[in-house]
Automatic annotation (TrEMBL):
Species name: Alkalibaculum sporogenes
Ranges of the DNA-binding region feature: 38-57
Organism placement in taxonomy: Bacteria, Bacillati, Bacillota, Clostridia, Eubacteriales
Record flagged with keyword DNA-binding: yes
Protein name: TetR family transcriptional regulator
Pfam families tied to this protein: TetR_N (PF00440)
All residue ranges annotated as the HTH tetR-type domain in the record: 15-75
SUPFAM superfamilies registered for this protein in UniProt: Homeodomain-like (SSF46689)
Length: 231
């Protein structure tokens, strides 16, 4: 008969294995990139078998999506911390979405290994297809519905979300390959413009969002360092 301590021991072992897999994958994706990192590499580094990786993450692309989500969560936490320093604890979620796009662009501009990772995820449709499996965030759509009376239903939200994910990944990929000759900052503005136009906002509202987000982003002191650590 299993005791409570036995069950806890198994749970702790499982959590430890999952954490090791994530840690190893993060480090390898940073150093080698997504394409050149194999499940064998991750298995060896984390000291687990490949069946364990499949149990927790299904496949390499889902694992990479989890790593990407962790980076995005760290960015959101860092932004929230920075906002308190400039007396802006509460900022419109729509504006903050544009701020995040600017931060992502600045990371791609300054950190080649982050740029490579994101480019490879875009090229392999990891960001799009993984979102089909994990669902998508609805907060921004609800905020837009409430503030701008856009009245999206569930189907419209999904159509907008997945078409935008596909389009923005394409922009990032083609920019990195040199087919779009512009700076990262300019590209992030265009990404936001495409997003908000898709939502149905007029240009005046979009310009206001871009201007407000630029002021906030310029006051953010956030970098992405080794192994995608947000500092």
């Amino acid at each position: 008969m299993n005791t409570g301590s036995d069950i806890m021991s198994v749970q702790n072992k499982d959590n430890s294995s999952k954490s090791r897999i994530l840690k190893s994958a993060t480090e390898l994706f940073y150093e080698k990139g997504y394409n050149d990192t194999s499940l064998d590499d991750i298995s060896k580094s984390a000291n687990v078998n490949k069946a364990m990786i499949a149990y927790y993450f299904k496949n390499k692309s889902q694992l990479a999506y989890e790593v990407c989500n962790n980076i995005n969560t760290d960015i959101k936490k860092a932004l929230a911390k920075q906002l308190t320093k400039i007396d802006l604890e509460v900022v419109d979620n729509i504006i903050m979405t544009a701020v995040e796009y600017k931060i992502f662009a600045s990371f791609r501009k300054r950190n080649p290994k982050y740029r490579r990772f994101i480019k490879e995820l875009c090229k392999d449709n990891v960001l799009l297809l993984s979102q089909v499996n994990t669902g998508f965030g609805k907060d921004i759509y609800h905020d837009l519905n409430k503030k701008h009376n856009l009245n999206f239903d569930e189907i419209e939200m999904k159509i907008n979300h997945y078409s935008l994910t596909s389009s923005l990944c394409g922009l990032i990929l083609m920019h990195d390959l040199g087919f779009i000759d512009c700076g990262h900052d300019y590209l992030s503005d265009k990404e936001c413009t495409i997003m908000f136009r898709t939502f149905g906002l007029d240009q005046a509202n979009i310009d206001n969002i871009l201007e407000d987000s630029k002021k906030i982003a310029n006051n953010m002191e956030i970098e992405i360092s080794n192994n995608f650590k947000v500092i």
